[in-house]
Amino acid sequence: MRKFVVAGAVALGAASLLLPSTANAAGTTVTVTVTAGALSISEPSAATLSLSGATYSGNLGFVQVTDDRGNLVATWTAKAAMTDFANGTETVPASNVAYTGGVASIVSGIIVPVAQIIPSMSTTPANACLGTVGVGKNAAKWNPSLSVAANLFAVSGSYTATLTHSVV
Amino acid sequence: MRSLTAFLMAALAVFAIPVAHAQPSAPSGPPILPGLGVRLLEVPENLADDPRAQIYVIDNVSPGTTIMRQIEITNRTSAARSVDIYPGAAHIEDVGGFAVEDGAAMNELSSWMSVDRRKLEMATGQIEPVTLTIAVPKDAPEGEQYAVMWAQITGPDPAGSGTRLVNRVGIRVYLSVGPGNGPAANFRIDSLTPRRSDVGASEVVAAVTNTGGRAVDLGGQLTLTEGPGGLSLGPRDATVLTLAPGNEGEVVFSLNADFPAGPWKAFVSLRSGLLHKEATATLTFPSSGVGDSVTITEPTTDKPWIWIIGTGIAVALAAILAALLLMRRRSRRST
Fold first, then answer.
1. Which residue of A has its CA nearest to B177?
2. DSSP letters along B118-159, please?
């Protein structure tokens, strides 16, 4: 009897070494459907810059973040990054551009959106608007503006830059 | 003790000052469509109760494992859109905060991530699921890494000089590589400090340290009781802080400008997912600047004498079992 038990234990031990670890399989292949909603960013428009005195400036149009995830502790971050202005031959570095978030407003739900000022833009995303102390589903929007000194655009022509808003 | 505190808080809540929030009002204007949306569709069964896992891709896997997650993309804009879907690098700043990198940047984790469709042509109102695959190589370094699964719409070119706008929204990925369940998450509340900001608003700052092996998204509530004249205030929510393992950061509770200095009994409750810690301190707000910090010592929940008694009982039980087995053997041999 004892020999059978020992042989069985050895066989089981050898088999468990060959089998893949079950801990991973259980944690990654068995999933449950999530009921939380989506995190959304509104569609982008195109923004032109108008000259006013010595500054080119313009509003980018409203950016709205809709957080339907329904978390008890709801939070989101919107960041902005920008490339240099280019007209094909000349560039004006994005570091000369200031981003003013303005006054963010609540669209729905409980959230305190805090729009930021980015004094110098770059390709590294910086905080543009923070969705803070939110509870449950919420939405907020802000209408940021850009400003850049006009005398930097020495050569005439159409200068275009790309500004990316990222929401996580 | 805790139920007594709760009773006191409930009783004092009657005397709470109604504090007016200076909330920004919603301006009138045509409603803006929600736009481009992303939604996590599935969570691993063993994380089903974790609120963080409902909105972020969070997992711990061994090197050489591949995991997949379904993500839903929705186009709730006014027109048909071409949506780009791609993984991007991210990291957590030393002082806290989830930082994302620009479109082209990659880190190890984002290089392991792929989607089954990188470009979707979506009609207005369309909903599409995409599958995110994270293939962790066998030689992957152990530890937690961060990335984002992005969905992106590019706006039209401006007429003349201007800015082309690109809007993107993503789902954070917090992936830990390591055997078994991975390192446990943990954090510690080190101190509570009252202060007045430059604009005169009162704040309570909880200095925290991430003492575990996983990033935490710390949020929570502050309740002030036993104030001047028996006043109480709260609960007030914290601004959420994302903190990487081993780092220290500040979780800030913002209060209102017109605020009696105190002293107040402050009760702070912080959470990240299913982790929960509490701290209590007596705080007095300064007229300006930073007030006196109160260091929080973590209560020792393990009392040595409980362990000694428990071990003693276990040893006694084992001895009784052994004795029973021996007696059974002897009685069998004798028959």
1. A24
2. SEEEE-TT-EEEEEEEEE--TTPPSEEEEEEEEEEEE-PPPS
